Amino acid sequence: MPNGARWVCYGKLSSDLPKLTQMGQLIFMGKRIEGFWLTQWMTTTPPADQMRVVAEVQARFADGRWKTDVSQRVALKDVIKNLANALKKGDGKVIITP
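-> structure tokens emitted (98 positions)
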């Protein structure tokens, strides 16, 4: 992370504790680690700003600038049978497909 960087934690995180072995980087290089809670953001952000941000996020995923890890895809017809096992696989999202 470069000087002044900000590490924002959001979503399901690992149960492993973070390993912060170089605390001087946080102190002397102005780096920060913080959490993001979507519910709080939505209650403090005007609706027009929310719509603008949501549109930008969707655009970034659609054009490939951003991506998310997908661990498994489950067909809608198989959700009852397969979803519980799919969610146990760890890293990545489970996508339910038509």
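The mean pLDDT is 90.
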